[in-house]
Amino acid sequence: IEESGLIVKKKKGTGFYDRFRNRIIFPIQDNIDRVIGFGGRTFDNDDPDIPKYINSNENLLYHKGKYLYGFNNAADSIRQADSAFIVEGYIDVIRMHKEGIKNTVAPLGTALTEDQISLIMRYTRKINLAFDSDDAGEKAMLRSISLMHQQGLDPSVICLPSGKDPGDFFDEYTTDDFDLLVAEAVSGIDYIVNVHIDSKKEYNANERITILQELAEYFNNMNDDILKIDFLKKISSALGINENILRQELIKLTRRATASSSHHEDITKKDTGVSTELYLLLLILSNPDLLPIAAGRLDDSYFHGKWTRKLWNAVSRASDNTHWDSGTVFSYLDNGEFIEYLSGKLIEDRLNINPESQIIDVVSSLKEKSIRERI
């Protein structure tokens, strides 16, 4: 029971306490209806010190980067409709199903992962993203679109009214209203361009360069030439830059980014205090929203150092909170010197140079190392 995360050992004294006390419990099931974990939502929305959502710890059965909430109930509907809706939370899924939109699923308390996208793509390539219409939702949307572009897929993006999520949308609107939003959905490429470029604004040369630097990583992540061509056309039209010049500039920018990230392993080796395992964890601590890139592909068996394994487990526990950062992680560690050491490392600039590319590279390195060790 302790390993499943249902109970937690008390820090003081003996015994355990109920981890999900005073919470609404959402059973999490795998694709064949077995309960493998739980999510819990607090009844108290006003206390900032209480995480709104928590989830079971990862264990032998439960890997939150590999499953989707509601998928066991949605799979047949996804196949029949040849489309899927991805929302952010458990309540969003329940409300969508209640309204008859049963081809709806959600990630398990984290951002969408490659494994989750691959799971849906076994059933359909028509994916609609309907995330919360706030800053956090926009950030999650952009990252999810980019992940899908890596798999050669451009999703549709449903733009909900400001301040709404799918769970409360239907308190004021009908399914017909939702159908209209679906009909007006924009492509993932259009969404990226619209977020970064204001069509009503005239940009000077320096502003255009800054925008292209922001868009270069999206271009680099696209694993399909047709997507790249469409992306170039949209940017060209929005900024008034010739497509050929635009392509050359984006390729140049992505090469620079790749060169910068490819040096991280050499830099790491020069710093005898930082192993590859620890460097990955520092990248995650510095960029918490990128954890799903690693969480979907690694578990604690990839961390052989005593402290790196403890740190990975602390990150996993902290990420059960809706909003978490390095401070949340440190609260799960009990060694002051180690925390002080990590704090010193987190101020290094290299952790913010194309962190997504760096994390992908380091994860691949750890997986290759694991394969070599098993041979």
TrEMBL record:
GO cellular component, one term: cytoplasm
Single GO BP term: DNA replication, synthesis of primer
Residues annotated as domain Toprim: 82-163
Protein name: Toprim domain-containing protein
Origin organism lineage: unclassified sequences, metagenomes, ecological metagenomes
